[in-house]
Amino acid sequence: MRTSPPPVDTISTDVVRRAALAAQGFADPRPSGPVTRRHLTRVLDRVQLLQLDSVNVAVRAHYMPLFARLGPYDPALVDDAAWAHSARKPRLLVEAWAHEASLLPVADWPLLMSGAKRSGWWRHYQQLADRNPGIVEDVLAAVKELGPIGAGALEKELGGVSKPRPPGATWWERSEVKRVCELLFGVGQLTTGTRVHFQRLYDLPERVLPPEVLAAHPAEPDAAARALLLRSATALGIATEPQLRDYYRLGPQQSQQALAELVEAGELEPVAVRGWRNPAYRRPGTRVPRRITGRALLCPFDPVVWERDRTESLHGFRYRIEIYVPEPKREYGYYVFPFLLDGHLVARVDLKADRAAGVLRVPGAFAEPGVDEPRVVAELAAELRTMAAWLGLDGVVAGERGGLSAPLAAALRGVRPAPA
After folding, report:
1. DSSP single-letter state for residue 322
2. d(CA 305, CA 257)
3. Radius of gyration of the chain (CA)
4. Residues in the chain where the model's pLDDT stays below 50
5. CA 194 to CA 83: how far, in whole Å?
6. CA 32 from centre of chain
7. What is the C-alpha to C-alpha distance for residues 117 and 221, in angstroms, rounded to an integer?
């Protein structure tokens, strides 16, 4: 006799919000002592990967999610895990195109190279490789002889001429050598050996990755898609199929097939979220704490705010990156950090590390409607001071834009607000 499927739980967005923040590590207390590799691994077990980005106006994107979850730590912890190797401290992380350019556990590298993730802007460069296969052979041979090596040095070695990029140039105008390097990086024939001043130095995977990881490559695409979707569910807590898919930028067909197989196997279970048109999914036993406490500044590339519609649905917080918006048209600022307090996004601050002056500048500070502003100001001022000290800066200077700027400036000066 055929049994009917078990009933589907119906939950609120508040439950999803708490489950999501717990999945991202915000239900865990910050370490009381020095931050170690064990803490780094714990965060990676939650978030799965760290997005890379070249913007350094405040702090590079891959360092900030760890600070948000762990508090102050030595950034060399990440550098050593990602771009160095020794018998005492083996490499823990490797670069790959995941959500975007990301650092992820070395064991996950074969999953990203499996074919499950079929899209990628670098694939446009395949036409160049097809037209001129000799350049691929030359690049691989030169990296084997000289690596780790940057694209500019490779170009000189192979006889090209490195020219400065004109204003407004896009990645379509990169040199042929650089394009081929990016293609080979995207498909796994090259990887990042190390970085110097954030410049990627290419190397062969066999000189970077452990033998057991190389032996697992290539992963079978359908199995890799299921594994990546489970990692997405771990990181998101409760999410729809498009949200799960977005975490590693999987294709719809691969994601939907993998999801059906995981539900059939009982590794994911459907839930209904009030107000959501699409069903959501969670891993059995997903943690939903009664409340989330603590505070954190989230950089624009933190996984909590990657998917803008999800952020708005769970937090009532409309968030957009305005880096590419002309300054007169920016609503909040160039590089804006949402502020998380006790499980809610309660404010946003535009931040700039003024290293020449030795201060963390806050050109704009804005409260969300209905929040307890005095408490938000006090907690925000404390977290900004902690962040400034972590960055080796002497203090925090508030600007003038936004309704929180004046009370924040007073709090940073140690002035108590007047009673209401």
Report:
1. -
2. 26
3. 23
4. 1, 161-163, 165, 169-173, 418-420
5. 5
6. 25
7. 8
